[in-house]
Amino acid sequence: MARVDQLASERSKAQFDVDEMKIVWAGSRHTFEISDRISRLVASDPAFRKDNRAMLGRKELFKNTLRKAAHAWKRIIELRLTDEEASRLRFYVDEPAFTDLHWGMFIPAIKGQGTDEQQQKWLPLAYKMQIIGCYAQTELGHGSNVQGLETTATFDPQTDEFIIHSPTLTSSKWWPGGLGKVSTHAVVYARLITDGKDYGVNGFIVQLRSMDDHSPLPGITIGDIGMKFGNGAYNTMDNGVLQFDHVRIPRDQMLMRVSQVTREGKFVQSNVPRQLVYGTMVYVRQTIVSDASCALSRAVCIATRYSAVRRQFGSNNDGVETQVIDYKTQQNRLFPLLASAYAFRFVGEWLKWLYTDVTQRLQANDFSTLPEAHACTAGLKSLTTSATADAIEECRKLCGGHGYLCSSGLPELFAVYVPACTYEGDNVVLLLQVARFLMKTVSQLGSGKKPVGTTAYMGRVEHLMQSSCDARKAEDWLKPSVILEAFEARSARMSVACAQNLAKFANPEEGFAELSADLTEASVAHCQLIVVSKFIEKLQQDIPGKGVKEQLEILCNIYALSLLHKYQGDFLSTGSITSKQASLANDQLRSLYSQVRPNAVALVDAFNYTDHYLGSVLGRYDGNVYPKLYEEAWKDPLNDSVVPDGYHEYIRPLLKQQLRNARL
Amino acid sequence: MARVDQLASERSKAQFDVDEMKIVWAGSRHTFEISDRISRLVASDPAFRKDNRAMLGRKELFKNTLRKAAHAWKRIIELRLTDEEASRLRFYVDEPAFTDLHWGMFIPAIKGQGTDEQQQKWLPLAYKMQIIGCYAQTELGHGSNVQGLETTATFDPQTDEFIIHSPTLTSSKWWPGGLGKVSTHAVVYARLITDGKDYGVNGFIVQLRSMDDHSPLPGITIGDIGMKFGNGAYNTMDNGVLQFDHVRIPRDQMLMRVSQVTREGKFVQSNVPRQLVYGTMVYVRQTIVSDASCALSRAVCIATRYSAVRRQFGSNNDGVETQVIDYKTQQNRLFPLLASAYAFRFVGEWLKWLYTDVTQRLQANDFSTLPEAHACTAGLKSLTTSATADAIEECRKLCGGHGYLCSSGLPELFAVYVPACTYEGDNVVLLLQVARFLMKTVSQLGSGKKPVGTTAYMGRVEHLMQSSCDARKAEDWLKPSVILEAFEARSARMSVACAQNLAKFANPEEGFAELSADLTEASVAHCQLIVVSKFIEKLQQDIPGKGVKEQLEILCNIYALSLLHKYQGDFLSTGSITSKQASLANDQLRSLYSQVRPNAVALVDAFNYTDHYLGSVLGRYDGNVYPKLYEEAWKDPLNDSVVPDGYHEYIRPLLKQQLRNARL
Question: Taking CB atoms and an 8 Å limit, are B411 and A660 in contact across chains?
Answer without folding.
Answer: no
